[in-house]
C-alpha cells in the first residue's frame, strides 16, 4: 500500500518567505549600521591624528622661533634683514603672510636639527655658542589639496593631509617688552608677535554620514556643509619661549 506524499502549501511558502525576508532585512541593517560606525570611528581617528600632528609640528616650530645659539648676540645681528617671506626686518623672527600662513626664523640648536622638510640645513654647526645662519620656514594651508605644508630651503612638503581649514590669532605688543597686549588675527607691521593661538579643522576623505550636516563645520563657516564628510576641530595655543620671559 502506497503512502500519500504531502508538500508545502502556498500559504506556508509565503509565510516562510516573509519570515526569511524580515531576517535578511534585519541582518542587512545591522551590517550597514556596523559599517557606518566603523567608518565613523576610522574617520574620527584619522581626523584627530592629522590635527594633533599638525598642532605638534606648529608648537615645536613656534617654540624654536627666535632661538639664538649665542644668547649675548643681539637679535638684529642674529637675524639680519632679509627679502624672504616678503621681507623681514632685522631682528624680526615671525611674520604673518596671510590668514592661513606665517613665517618663522630660528638658528638650529644642534648639528642634527632638521628643518620642517626633514632635511638638515647645509651649513654645519661647528660647536656651542657659535654663530649660525638662521633657518626660515613658511607654514601654510594648501586649500586645493587640503594639506598643511611647509616651505624651507626652496622646497615645499606636505606635513599633514585632510586639513580643511586653519585659523591663526596672534598675541602681539608694540614694543620690546616681553609681554602680550592683545590677540588679533591681523597683526600690524610694527607689532611684535609673541604667541599664537590656532585652530585646525580636519575632514574625512570620504562621505560617511546619512545626511549632510556638521556642528563643527557650521561653527567654523557659519553655514552648513554640502557633503556628508566628518569634520573635526582641535585648537591649541603656544607662546614663543625665546621671545617671552
What would you say about this model in short?
The protein is α+β, with helices and mostly antiparallel strands.
Question: What does this protein structure show overall?
Answer:
The chain has 245 residues and is an alpha+beta fold. It has one domain (17-239). It is built from 3 helices and 9 strands. The longest helix is centred in the N-terminal third of the chain and has 55 residues, at 10-64.
For the CA atoms, what is the radius of gyration? 28 Å
Number of helices: 3
Fraction of residues in H or I helices: 25-40%
Classify the secondary structure makeup into a structural class. Answer: alpha+beta
Number of strands: 9
State the distance separating the first and last CA atoms.
109 Å
Biggest sheet: strands, sense, closure? 5 strands, antiparallel
The gross shape turns out to be elongated
Strand order of the largest sheet: 1-2-3-4-5
Our estimate of the beta-strand percent is: 25-35%
Written as H for each helix and E for each strand, in order along the chain, the element string is HHEEEEEEEEHE
Low-confidence region ranges: none
Mean pLDDT: 86
Query: How many domains is the backbone divided into?
Result: 1
Amino acid at each position: 500500500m502506497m503512502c500519500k506524499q504531502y508538500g508545502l502549501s502556498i500559504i506556508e511558502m509565503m509565510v516562510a518567505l516573509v519570515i526569511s525576508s524580515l531576517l535578511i532585512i534585519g541582518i542587512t541593517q545591522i551590517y550597514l549600521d556596523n559599517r557606518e560606525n566603523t567608518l565613523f570611528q576610522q574617520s574620527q581617528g584619522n581626523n584627530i591624528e592629522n590635527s594633533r600632528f599638525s598642532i605638534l609640528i606648529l608648537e615645536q616650530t613656534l617654540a624654536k622661533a627666535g632661538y639664538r645659539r649665542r644668547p649675548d648676540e643681539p637679535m638684529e645681528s642674529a637675524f639680519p634683514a632679509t627679502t624672504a617671506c616678503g621681507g623681514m626686518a632685522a631682528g624680526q623672527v615671525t611674520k604673518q603672510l596671510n590668514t592661513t600662513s606665517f613665517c618663522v626664523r630660528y638658528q638650529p640648536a644642534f648639528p642634527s636639527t632638521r628643518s620642517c622638510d626633514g632635511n638638515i640645513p647645509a651649513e654645519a654647526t661647528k660647536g656651542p655658542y657659535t654663530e649660525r645662519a638662521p633657518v626660515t620656514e613658511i607654514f601654510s594651508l594648501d586649500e586645493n589639496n587640503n594639506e598643511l605644508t611647509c616651505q624651507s630651503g626652496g622646497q615645499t612638503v606636505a606635513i599633514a593631509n585632510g586639513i580643511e581649514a586653519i585659523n591663526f590669532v596672534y598675541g602681539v605688543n608694540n614694543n620690546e617688552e616681553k609681554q602680550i597686549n592683545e590677540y588679533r588675527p591681523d597683526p600690524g607691521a610694527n607689532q611684535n608677535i609673541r604667541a599664537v593661538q590656532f585652530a585646525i579643522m580636519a575632514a574625512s576623505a570620504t562621505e560617511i554620514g546619512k545626511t549632510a550636516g556638521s556642528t563643527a563645520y557650521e561653527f567654523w563657516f557659519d553655514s552648513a556643509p554640502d557633503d556628508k564628510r566628518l569634520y573635526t576641530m582641535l585648537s591649541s595655543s603656544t607662546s614663543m619661549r625665546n621671545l617671552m620671559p
